[in-house]
Write a structure and sequence with these properties.
Layout (H helix, E strand, L loop, with lengths): L1 E5 L3 E6 L10 E4 L6 E8 L2 E9 L3 E3 L17 E5 L4 E5 L2 E2 L2 E2 L2 E6 L3 E7 L21 E5 L4 E8 L4 E8 L4 E3 L10 E2 L2 E5 L4 E5 L2 E2 L8 E5 L4 E4 L14 E5 L4 E5 L2 E2 L2 E2 L4 E5 L14 H4 L4
Antiparallel strand pairs: 1-2, 3-4, 4-5, 5-6, 7-8, 8-11, 9-10, 11-12, 13-14, 14-15, 15-16, 17-20, 18-19, 19-21, 21-22, 23-24, 24-27, 25-26
Length: about 290
């Protein structure tokens, strides 16, 4: 099923047809603000590789009985619209439990194109390695202040990572000199705060298990992650929650999520971010402002 949320009416059931029931799929905006792209996810038959466009109703990109070039089946991947290059970017995920290291781009005019990653059986699809390592359940957001996609954390199935990478359309670059305090995390929620001009990273599952109550901001001007005050800080944001920025209210909408062992309910939380000047670096002695003691 497909649901739509508005501040005035809340949640309403829009349609019941379209993609089959699934979890761990990816959904993002496209060059047309009124069009969304959905790809993959886990269904009753296993990982899927179908793509759908939403324009008020669902339409399959590859019609039944036709052959289309698409990324391999997967779940736990991430997608984001690159507003600089007018492309949807798909990164990583897992196929039949095996973590993937690849990057694909899509536009309505050119379809799917593989940019880098795991070699395929077809030699024609061979591309250079991406460099960031196979992973799933990572956070991916387009940061206009960087003019690039920003990827954080994830898991390869054996360990959780906490590194930060950028994608500008040609190569992945790892951001160095970042504080270790950010730490490994998977299933974090991320979005760009257009009102204040920075990327927000919230919660997720940590190496210690359980959901993290931390909220971080990436400040492109100083090239660093800053942990700071956020209305709702201290609320443990469940892993793999749905998270989106609402420009009309200047707020983030968070829905659902949860660890496999402790699934969250269907509570909807709207939490407003604060201005950039109100953020602080917890390594400089402001633990009281930032939440739990360091």
């Amino acid at each position: 099923d497909t649901w739509q949320w508005t501040k005035r009416q809340g949640w309403s059931l829009t349609v019941t047809d379209g993609p089959t029931a699934r979890a761990a799929h990816a959904l993002t905006t496209t060059v047309d603000p009124g069009t969304l792209l959905l790809f993959g996810g886990t269904t009753a038959e296993g990982d899927a590789q179908d793509a759908w466009l939403w324009t008020g109703s669902w339409r399959a990109l590859c019609e039944p009985g036709t052959t289309c070039k698409t990324p391999p089946a997967r779940s736990g991947h991430a997608m984001v619209f690159d507003a600089e290059r007018k492309r949807v970017v798909l990164v990583g995920g897992a196929s039949s439990g095996v973590a993937l290291e690849d990057t694909w781009e899509w536009s309505l005019e050119t379809g799917w194109n593989k940019r880098c990653g795991t070699p395929q059986a077809d030699a024609a699809e061979s591309r250079p390695p991406c460099g960031f390592g196979a992973r799933f359940d990572h956070a991916l957001v387009f940061d206009p202040s960087l003019g690039a996609g920003l990827m954080v954390g994830g898991s390869d199935g054996r360990r959780i990572v906490g590194d930060t990478w950028t994608w500008s359309g040609n190569v992945w670059r790892k951001l160095g000199n970042l504080p270790d305090a950010l730490g490994p995390r998977t299933g974090s929620a991320a979005g760009f705060d257009a009102q204040h001009g920075f990327t927000i990273l919230a919660g997720g599952e940590t190496e210690k298990g359980g959901s993290s109550p931390e909220v971080w901001a990436y400040l492109a001007s100083s090239k660093q992650w800053i942990r700071g005050l956020w209305l709702g800080d201290g609320f443990a944001v469940p892993a793999n929650a749905a998270f989106a920025y609402d420009s009309a209210s200047g707020a983030f909408l968070l829905h659902g999520g949860g660890l496999v062992t402790e699934l969250a309910g269907t509570t909807t939380l709207v939490a407003r971010s604060v201005s950039q000047s109100e953020y602080c670096d917890c390594t400089r002695g402001c633990a009281k402002v930032c939440g739990s003691a360091q």
